């Protein structure tokens, strides 16, 4: 059982982050924000996939002008992503957003940052303080010589103290980098010194395959250490893949469960059915179903019901056929060509009967 770090609560709209809340899954749209129809369409798809907070890029005034329509129609809280322009930040704050993401190191004007904080306080808007190697302050680069874990943590602590010094506490911190070990160390240093909620992830993780592995390692280790209150898996891929990967990471650690869990054995010379094809067809057919059940598809008698005894339902395959079992008990034998159909039929019955 993972013991999570105790943090204070932060609210992004109606979504609670930190304290005793479940770890929140978020993503970012890849549309041009000023294309309202495309942006809202993607937000709806991501929300359906399980995204709980969405961030949208706001690099131009045209994007900021689109925010009122987007926030009014979004099914989940919207965070405006601001990097360099206080002017655009103020415009975004008038739009009904629930949160704003700032990299203070990119603005580096305490007066303007304080004005933004005061406006957020007045409008009950949460702030995410972003710290990464690309936005590290010059003073820290001179002190450490490069964006080390210690430098990133020091920047995050400095800006956190500044926000608190002006009486603002509804913020979370994100310390991200593409180096997994540096990322873990920076977050550990920060987590040991504060009770501020942390948004975690590996930035610029890469394409879906490699990026998912890199993210699972970095995010997984931090979560195992009890660190992390909200996550984003950053992939060079469709944002819906980020959501699926995020829930897979959380589910593998027993922190959250969404969808149907499929367990299947690796391929080997003992298998006498087309196991990859069967698993793929089952996985695609069950995509989008949110049932708290575990489905096992085992390739041979060695890894059959014994190893899958904790599954709710599954197939124990053999010579061109399989035993269909439920709760560890055999139901009937099915031929290879009928395996997927018969398994799905039983799962539909379980869904109907609320099993």
TrEMBL record:
**Which GO molecular function annotations are given, in alphabetical order?**
4 iron, 4 sulfur cluster binding; 4-hydroxy-3-methylbut-2-en-1-yl diphosphate synthase activity (ferredoxin); 4-hydroxy-3-methylbut-2-enyl-diphosphate synthase activity (flavodoxin); iron ion binding
Q: In which pathway does it act?
A: Isoprenoid biosynthesis; isopentenyl diphosphate biosynthesis via DXP pathway; isopentenyl diphosphate from 1-deoxy-D-xylulose 5-phosphate: step 5/6
Annotated IspG C-terminal domain residues:
261-349
Q: Which residues form the IspG TIM-barrel domain?
A: 7-246
Query: Does the record's keyword annotation contain Transferase?
Result: no
- A Pfam family recorded for this sequence: GcpE_C
Provide the alphabetized UniProt keywords: 4Fe-4S, Iron, Iron-sulfur, Isoprene biosynthesis, Metal-binding, Oxidoreductase
| Essential cofactor(s) | [4Fe-4S] cluster
Textual note on the cofactor: Binds 1 [4Fe-4S] cluster.
Q: EC number(s)? A: 1.17.7.3
Instruction: Note whether Transcription occurs among the keywords.
Output: no
Q: Which GO terms describe its biological process?
A: isopentenyl diphosphate biosynthetic process, methylerythritol 4-phosphate pathway; terpenoid biosynthetic process
Identify the enzyme class: oxidoreductase
Q: Which reaction does it catalyse?
A: (2E)-4-hydroxy-3-methylbut-2-enyl diphosphate + oxidized [flavodoxin] + H2O + 2 H(+) = 2-C-methyl-D-erythritol 2,4-cyclic diphosphate + reduced [flavodoxin]
Residues bound to [4Fe-4S] cluster are 265, 268, 300, 307
Q: What does this protein do?
A: Converts 2C-methyl-D-erythritol 2,4-cyclodiphosphate (ME-2,4cPP) into 1-hydroxy-2-methyl-2-(E)-butenyl 4-diphosphate.
Q: Which family does it belong to?
A: Belongs to the IspG family.
Protein's name according to its UniProt entry: 4-hydroxy-3-methylbut-2-en-1-yl diphosphate synthase (flavodoxin)
Native species: Venenivibrio stagnispumantis
